[in-house]
Amino acid sequence: MSKIKSIKWIFVGANQIRTGWRALLFIVCWLALYAAVGLPSRHLLHVDKGREIPFHVAAVGEALQLIATLGATWVMSKVERRDIFAYGLSGPRFLAWCVRGWLMGLAAVSLMILSLWSLGCWHFDGIHTHGSSALLYAILWGLLFSAVAFSEECTFRGYLFVTLSRGMNVWPAAVCLSILFAAVHLSGSGENWFGIFALFFTGLMFSFIVWRTQSLAAAFGLHASWDWAQSYLYGVADSGNRIHGYLVRSHMSGNELLSGGSVGPEGSILVIPVMLLIAVTVHLTTDPRHSSD
């Protein structure tokens, strides 16, 4: 009996599965769901290196990740007997925070592009997509990047962040998940060492925003508009990827650490002060005791 109790102690504490095992179970569920729905569809996801990503390919890939994320979160909510919205998806001002985050993301990317232009690193080459096609792609990519943001924020700042924060406190959890967030981008064809570090730092800042606002809403809006503004509005690479149907034709030049090189502006050293500016703005405009009121 004592042997059984000692084994149980490894897995169970305070009458529930220990934090590390719950986090591992979420990851296993995510991988299992992604494999189950992804294997039949993987032939649809191939894009030759260096080519623009078509909307339908991005949509299929993101749908697979979204199914895996929502499915794993739902499974864990049942394991813990909690509402699925308990992992950062609740709050009476959720929509308002989404809009605020979206505006911050658009302003942040525009500030980076303006800075890069003034330094001779970003060059405007004209309008690439016109008329109704431009409007259609703006809407389609806006919806797609909203799905990207929702999926990634729920994965890295949703269940895992809430769970690990309880077990190891907020900042150790933020560091661990930011490392994971950066690591999953290592397969990106255009990534470089600073781009990966910038993703780690961005993950920390997003974790701070979620902690400060007690909700995924602001981070979700910021993430969505950040990707949309880079990829569609300003026509630059985002984590080394370019999309089909972008609005502005442009190119980068100059020092890679400053311009971001093949990674795009989010691989520029300018991302550090811009992200810090966003974090300071959130800090000064919220009260952590009433931030989700």
Give a short overview.
With 293 residues, this protein is mainly alpha-helical.
Descriptive report:
It is built from ten helices and four strands; from the N terminus they run αββαααβααααβαα. The protein is mostly helical. The strands form two sheets. The protein has a two-stranded antiparallel sheet. Strands 3-4 form a two-stranded antiparallel sheet. Strand 1 and strand 2 (16-17) form a beta hairpin. Helix 2 packs antiparallel against helix 3 and helix 4 packs antiparallel against helix 10 (271-284). It is globular, with a radius of gyration of 20 Å.
Give helix % range: 55-70%
Low-confidence stretches: none
- H-E string: HEEHHHEHHHHEHH
Strand content: 5-15%
Largest sheet: 2 strands, antiparallel
For the largest sheet, list the strands in their spatial order: 1-2
Name the structural class: mainly alpha
Rg, Å, rounded: 20 Å
How far is the first residue's CA from the last residue's CA? 49 Å
Mean pLDDT: 86
Count of distinct strands: 4
Question: Which descriptor suits the 3D outline?
Answer: globular
Instruction: Output the number of helix runs.
Output: 10
Defining key terms:
mainly alpha, two-stranded antiparallel sheet, two-stranded antiparallel ribbon
Can you lay out the helices and strands and say which pair or pack?
Elements (H helix, E strand, L loop, with lengths): L1 H10 E2 L2 E2 L1 H20 L16 H26 L13 H25 L3 E6 L3 H38 L1 H14 L9 H21 L3 H17 L14 E5 L3 H4 L11 H14 L9
Antiparallel strand pairs: 1-2, 3-4
Helix pairs in contact: 2-3, 2-5, 3-5, 4-8, 4-10, 5-6, 5-8, 6-7, 7-10
